[in-house]
Amino acid sequence: MDEELERLRAKRMDEIRQRIMSPPSDSAGILILTQENFYSVIRENPNLIVDFWAPWCGPCRMLSPVIEQLSAEYAGRIRFAKCNTDENQQMAYQLGISAIPSLFFFQNGTVIHRVSGALPKENLDMQIRSVYSVQSL
What we know:
Strand content: 15-25%
Number of helices: 5
Shape: elongated
């Protein structure tokens, strides 16, 4: 019985660890950025919002569903991407990221706006509309 309980406990811990450490899904069309593809992605997407995050960051995890919702709502007008700062530390350093989550708003490859912290969806939506001069759905 103890062996079975220990096996189940170990399996559950592996599942939890996998869920916490796995990168966010791109099911909503969210791009996953790395140091290798970063500059090509920001050049190829005229209106791009990049979420700099880390798996251990609670506010980052809270912001993730908001990013997915906004990505779906602004599909065809604004692209969204995520960049794991733990896996891309050099990129975070080059951009001067000192707090996560940090959202960078790019237009034609240039940073035009920055936001730090887990904002409520309504606040983030308002900033997107203001920065990119678009209407929400």
